[in-house]
Amino acid sequence: MKTSLKFLAALLITSTFSFGQDFTRKIDSIIKDNYQKNPDVGISVGFIQNDKEYFTAYGNLSKESQIKIDKNSLFEIASITKILTSNLLAQAVLDKKIKTDDYIDGYLPKAYVLQEKLKNKIKISDLASHQSGLPDIDFGKLIELNPQQPVSNVTEKTLTDLVNNCSELKDYGKFRYSTIGYTLLGQILEKVYGKSYDEIIRNKIIKPLKMTNTLTTDFNVKNKTVGHNPEGGAQEFMNWNVTAPAGLVKSNTSDMVTYLKAVLNKETEIGKAAIVTEKIFYKDEKREMGLGLNISTDEKNTIYLKSGDSMGESSILCYDRTKNWGIIILLNQRNSKMRQNLLNEIYDTVLK
Question: What is the reported pTM?
Answer without folding.
Answer: 0.92
